Amino acid sequence: xxxxxxxxxxxxxxxxxxxxxxxxxxxxxxxxxxxxxxxxxxxxxxxxxxxxxxxxxxxxxxxxxxxxxxxxxxxxxxxxxxxx
Length: 84
Prior knowledge:
- By secondary structure, this protein is an alpha+beta fold.
- It contains three helices and four strands; from the N terminus they run αααββββ.
- It has one domain (20-81): Beta-lactamase Inhibitory Protein, Chain:B, domain 1 (2-Layer Sandwich).
- A four-stranded antiparallel β-sheet has the order 1-2-3-4, covered by helices on one side.
- β3 (65-71) and β4 (74-81) form a beta hairpin.
């Protein structure tokens, strides 16, 4: 393998290991945070749903995730699973 290939592989592994869905970022979440603040911390959500001023957004997958429920534009509740 060439040095260039090894460097590219190392960069890809580093980026995949640097997930924003982790215990450190979960600990920074607070009730009352604005939706924009949460997205600045965690990135774009994997999925969102909601109705009548209440919404829920998820980051991650079935095993490792952070879920945030909003009332309007503010965090109401949040939970996480499988965080490291």
